Amino acid sequence: MTALSFKGRVAVVTGATRGIGWGVAEALGAAGAHVIAVGRTVGALEELDDAIQAKGGEASTLVPINLTDYDAIDRLGAAIYERWGRLDILVGNAGTLGQLSPLGHIPPKVWDEVIGVNLTANWRLIRSLDPLLRQSDAGRAVFLTAAQPHTGEPFWGATAASKAGLEALIKTYANEIAHTRVRANLVDPGPTRTQFRAKAYPGEDAETVAPAKRHAPAILALLTPACLENGTLVDLGRTMADDGVLASERTTGLA
Prior knowledge:
CATH class: Alpha Beta
Order of helices and strands: EHEHEHEHEHHEEHEHEHE
Strand order of the largest sheet: 3-2-1-4-5-6-9-10
Distance between the termini: 29 Å
Oligomer: single chain
Number of domains: 1
Number of strands: 10
């Protein structure tokens, strides 16, 4: 497969300090994009920047914020406008598990955090960055979801509710931008070797699930100007081919 080029593209990746976010940010940077890496830990963001430069990419813009600092998301949009006047790529990867417990036992503070990070922060990102995506010749956005909104799995209520809301949000957004040059899609990575999954399944052998970096090629394919998918949920856990690219039966239409 020919390597994808993102030379000259400007990309925001949230949750870039580890897991899928790190893998996508590193791959975008190595492919020529200027990565605006968003995460909570300065040291991890600096390590990501070093990794991108080691692969021949340019220095990244590092944004150490908590996504529940919604005013900071607004400031991010203003800063991108001042420097570039546009945004080509948005990857809404950041997420939190909260805790697994019966619905009636979830502390309100935990519930609010899960909804805040998994749902509200992504709405705030759209609110802040959609005008910049519309200034791109081919704005592309991908948001990470999960299986729980569709399975009703016990004890996953906070995650399920937040991701169900996210899917409804992106379905609506995709329909609103259908006649623009922007496209927005969802990705369910399936079982993946991340800290999120390790917290949810502490007894699981991590070697039995896919490494986070394996998903980067499939996600990058959705971020190219050539990708015209819109309002689609891509289930990588079910349809990823052996070489890590999207299989032909990859999509479940939402729009």
